[in-house]
Write a structure and sequence with these properties.
heterodimer; A: 596 residues; alpha+beta; 8-stranded mixed sheet; two-stranded antiparallel ribbon; 14 strands; B: 281 residues; Rossmann fold; 2 domains; 9-stranded mixed sheet; two-stranded antiparallel sheet; 30% helix; globular
């Protein structure tokens, strides 16, 4: 059940669509010249395919285990983690001041895609550590940064994010964990957190928990939540480990997927209170979380893409090997099922959607680099507006599509796909969490219609529509049926997105329930059209490269065929989605609640 | 300890196709890689460095783009890289190649004495396995070919013990330094490059030596002039046409199939049963 990173497509997208060359000119990216990026991608592929991918099924079958508060990760995971950290992978995107490599988001995005595709359960630990690092970078005091960050960046310690409680899932305003000042500047935490990814494990000597909790006189609701840092072992001033903190892992969850990743119930303060330190100011914890939300949601969006890639590779391999039936057009020879038109349709659908997701995600990654490092303030703001608008798409659309692709992967395998030993069922199960954690698809869609469209009257979306339309000038120069078909369908798709977006912007203040009922279709519409936009750019770049006689002709022809497929089979659905967005809301709400 | 590892940039033979009509190698679009056999040599050298300290210099002769192969070796932890490149080297056979590399190693040795030279057992494009021994002969180094393991290095006594894969068994050989080792494949596993080494490799300046800088004055010993080997003809061997035999089994069960085959084998080779029985278990 091998995995190889799709390096050729990754490099194509980075260079042709996401402007890798432009990145090198941004301040702080001086070392990202082609050579180091090439070496990093090659070596990440080796690590992902040789070390992480073979552990994926072991993680699924052996699972993380809990006994008496101690969590044991599946065989091989700990060794792989130690090598991962030793080779410096943990801190590739982190600040060099704390030992990171400071690589651009575009490069780390490609690398994270590999970890996630090779072994989603494994990838979650570094991902959560990154989130915790970011929180401390953002609002931690200098002393906190000095105490924790070096070891977290190197991977010597890991980090967690403790948000959810049993009554506080999507609604974090309901958080009840209490933080009482101890009088010495620290606080004592009591309460129970659930769904804590890698909240306890055997990889490292210490775990740094970031915890949302309420102080005694905090206001009700979202404005009364503060952020705390609570290490598993207290850290002395000289950096050595002190006493075990009053934090206990009560159990780990039995889940549908990602069995290798321990999802913990953590109990704080059973013996009087866990020692914790305030991060930033009191009552601003949720605000800090929202600043970090983009990074976390983007990372989960990549999981949809990564699982789709893995499921596609597996399906192609099987479709080439499995001999069944004869060619529908005639002939007595038994053929591999890849010859059958509907298997081809499924494989093309998997491939086209995977490549579209990759293109969209990498373009958004590159915009994040520009938003943080471009010397021009106007360019930074423009890129940030694009990133903010696109985050719910990368998260919501890519994970929904990842589920569809993983499901198609099972279908390509026929009956064998339903059998666990075949391996593709794991991708289907693992994918299922991605539309749920870090905000369900509905939460993403809610963010899209509210903060991203409703609040600015649809201006950011209108700017995006305009940018998409500008591509038409270039597409008009292309010859050939593929380019013409793509051009026509993209124009219709963009118009559909404009109609849907305008409807939402206009109705947001007037008919919020109907707009909300159409919010996920709008998110899908936007994903489908953004995917079409990027596949059109890919088609354009491929045709230009072919005309200039540059590159692997087989790859470029395949890219054009894939873009054409996307137009005819995916982008073509944009108009239907727009109708649902505009007219479908009432039907959702028409029936009496009691009639369900 | 100063170790020189000789490497070669080769086309990735797994991706090479041979032209069906002209029988020439179709190199277009085939990525260039470090000769895979050389990576076993490099890994062994890096392990010796891990154990005993010192430094590892990677050396290659080739066109300017061979610098990429050297940089790859730097990402794994080699300390320094030297590319010997000059149009005068073009068309070199193994005799001329070993001459140029030997000259370069002599040059390196003047800077910092070389204790050990490693090469892969052969390259995947030429497959001659001659360059390593050629260098050893020219430099008057002890030569150990097809080494599967470096058992022990005694730096104080300047001695080294290795295991060498030979027909029918393993030889344990001991010799004095300096020596040249050609390393067998599958004997170790190339480490993963660390992030630090990848950045170091990208920043590191590869030293480029032309003919003069490599200390070569006699141009009759290098390039096409120094190469007596001539490729007279390249052809693809004809596939042998041989009739396959259809064996009818007595039943469909695996046991029946196996018994049919075994009986057939023993009938055809009457001495086979005795030979198997006679073998020590």
């Amino acid at each position: 059940m091998s995995y190889r990173a799709p390096l050729q497509d990754m490099r194509f997208v980075m260079q042709e669509l996401a402007g890798l060359d432009r990145l090198a000119s941004l301040p702080g990216f001086g070392d990202t010249g082609g050579e180091v990026v090439d070496a990093v991608l090659d070596e990440a592929d080796r690590f992902a395919s040789d070390i992480l991918a073979p552990l994926n099924r072991i993680g699924d079958t052996e699972r993380a285990r809990w006994q008496d508060g101690v969590v044991t990760t599946p065989p091989g995971f700990r060794d792989a983690y130690l090598r991962f950290a030793e080779n410096g992978w943990n801190g590739i995107g982190c600040d060099p001041e704390y030992g990171g490599q400071g690589m651009p988001k575009l490069v780390t995005t490609a690398v994270y895609e590999m970890w996630k595709a090779a072994n989603l359960s494994f990838s979650l630990c570094p991902m959560l550590t990154s989130g915790a690092i970011e929180a401390l970078m953002l609002r931690g005091s200098d002393a906190q940064k000095q105490m924790y960050l070096h070891n977290m960046v190197s991977g010597k310690w890991t980090g967690t994010m403790n948000l959810t409680e049993s009554q506080a899932g999507s609604d974090l305003a309901a958080v009840r964990t209490r933080a009482v000042p101890a009088g010495d500047g620290s606080y004592r935490l009591t309460g129970q957190k659930i769904f804590i990814t890698y909240g306890e494990h055997d990889y490292t000597e210490n775990i740094i928990h970031l915890v949302l909790a309420r102080t005694p006189d905090a206001p009700e609701g979202v404005k009364g939540i503060s952020l705390f840092v609570a290490p598993k072992f207290l850290v002395r001033a000289d950096g050595s480990l002190g006493a075990r903190n009053d934090i206990r892992c009560l159990s780990i969850e039995h889940k549908l997927g990602i069995h290798g990743s321990p999802t913990c119930v953590l109990s704080y303060g059973e013996q009087g209170g866990a020692t914790a330190y305030l991060v930033g100011e009191e009552n601003r914890g949720l605000e800090y979380m929202f600043i970090m939300m983009n990074a976390a949601r983007f990372a989960v969006g990549l999981e949809g893409l990564a699982i789709a890639e893995r499921a596609y590779q597996k399906a192609v391999q099987y479709a080439r090997e499995r001999i069944q039936g004869t060619d529908i057009a005639g002939g007595k020879d038994k053929v591999a099922i890849v010859r059958h038109p509907d298997v081809r349709r499924m494989l093309m659908r998997m491939k086209a959607q995977t490549e579209a997701m990759r293109a969209v995600a990498y373009v958004v990654a590159s915009a994040q680099d520009a938003a943080s490092r471009h010397p021009d303030a106007g360019e930074r703001a423009r890129n940030q507006a694009f990133v903010d608008l696109m985050i719910p798409i990368v998260k919501g659309w890519s994970t929904e599509t990842g589920n569809e692709v993983a499901s198609l992967g099972v279908q390509v395998h026929g009956g064998m796909g339903f059998i666990e030993e075949t391996g593709t069922a794991q991708f289907f199960r693992d994918a299922r969490i991605t539309t749920i954690y870090e905000g369900t698809t509905a939460i993403q869609a809610n963010d899209l219609i509210g903060r991203k469209i409703g609040r600015d009257g649809g201006r950011a979306l209108a700017a995006l529509v305009q940018e998409m339309r500008a591509l038409d000038v270039d597409l008009a120069t292309l010859t050939g049926a593929d380019a013409q078909r793509m051009r026509a369908l993209l124009a219709r798709g963009v118009a559909a997105l404009e109609r849907g977006g305008r409807h939402v912007a206009e109705q947001y203040g007037k008919n919020i329930r109907a707009v909300a009922a159409g919010s996920v279709p709008l998110l899908q519409l936007m994903g489908v059209v953004c995917g079409g936009w990027q596949m059109a750019r890919a088609l354009l770049a491929a045709q230009r490269r072919l005309a200039a006689d540059g590159g692997d002709r087989g790859f470029l022809h395949a890219k054009i065929a894939t873009a054409r497929f996307y137009a005819d089979h995916v982008l073509v659905g944009a108009e239907a989605l727009a109708e649902t967005v505009i007219d479908g809301g009432d039907a959702v709400l028409a029936m009496d609640e009691a009639a369900f | 300890m100063h170790i020189v590892v000789c490497i070669k940039q080769v086309p990735d033979s797994a991706q090479i196709r041979v032209h069906p009509v002209t029988n020439t190698i179709m190199r277009q679009g085939v990525p260039a890689i470090v000769n895979p056999y050389d990576l076993f040599a490099l890994e062994e050298a890096l392990r010796l460095k891990d154990r005993h300290g010192g430094r590892v210099t990677v050396l290659t002769m080739g066109p300017p783009q061979a610098e990429d192969a050297l940089r790859k070796c730097l990402t794994f932890g080699a300390d320094e890289a030297i590319l010997v490149t000059d149009r005068a080297f073009a068309g070199a056979d193994t005799l001329a190649t070993s001459y140029a590399l030997a000259a370069a190693i002599r040059n390196i040795d003047r800077d910092a004495a070389v204790d050990l030279v490693f090469t892969g057992k052969q390259t995947i494009d030429g497959d001659t396995a001659q360059v390593g021994p050629g260098i050893a002969k020219r430099l008057d180094l002890q030569l150990l070919t097809y080494v599967s393991r470096v058992e022990q290095v005694d730096i104080a006594q300047r001695r080294l013990r290795v295991q060498r894969r030979a027909e029918g068994g393993v030889q344990v050989l001991e010799t004095r330094l300096p020596c040249l080792i050609t390393m067998l494949e599958g004997t170790n596993e190339m480490r993963f490059a660390s992030m630090d080494n990848m950045f170091r490799a990208a920043r590191c300046a590869v030293r480029i030596w032309d003919r003069e800088a490599a200390g070569i004055s006699d141009v009759s010993k290098i390039g096409l002039k120094g190469s007596p080997t001539v490729v007279s003809k390249v052809f693809a061997p004809q596939a042998r046409a041989r009739r396959a035999e259809l064996i009818e089994a007595e039943g469909d069960a695996p046991r029946d199939l196996a018994l049919t085959l075994i009986n057939k084998l023993f009938t055809r080779n009457p001495k086979l049963r005795d030979a198997i029985v006679a073998q020590p278990s």
